[in-house]
Amino acid sequence: MEMRIYDATGRAISHQEYDKTSSRLRISLDASDLPPGTYRSVVIEGDRTTVSSFVKLR
Questions:
Q1: What are phi and psi of 43, to 5 degrees?
Q2: What is the pLDDT of residues 2-51, one digit of tens each?
Q3: Exposure class string for 4-37: b at 16+ Cβ within 10 A, else e
């Protein structure tokens, strides 16, 4: 499974890969180094892709 973070311009900010050993996996994202703005997280697991947006205020 992999997770990618993109900024509002579509630039890749982060790419992480994880070994998923059970049916659930909880991931915490440390956004402290990100400047304020809108971001998209893309989680890819096999043939399934989930896209979510988030906003960092400070």
A1: -110, 125
A2: 999 999 999 999 999 988 777 777 888 888 999 999 999 999 998 999 99
A3: bbbeeeeeeebeeeeeeeeeeeeeeeeeeeeeee
Instruction: Determine the pLDDT at residue 26.
Output: 80
Two tokens, residue 10: 């579509």
Question: What's the Cα-to-Cα distance from 22 to each of 13, 16, 19, 44, rounded to whole Å?
Answer: 27, 18, 9, 16
Q: What angle do CA 33, 36, 38 make, to 5 degrees?
A: 110
Nearest partner of 16 among 54, 25, 35, 56, judged by Cα = 25
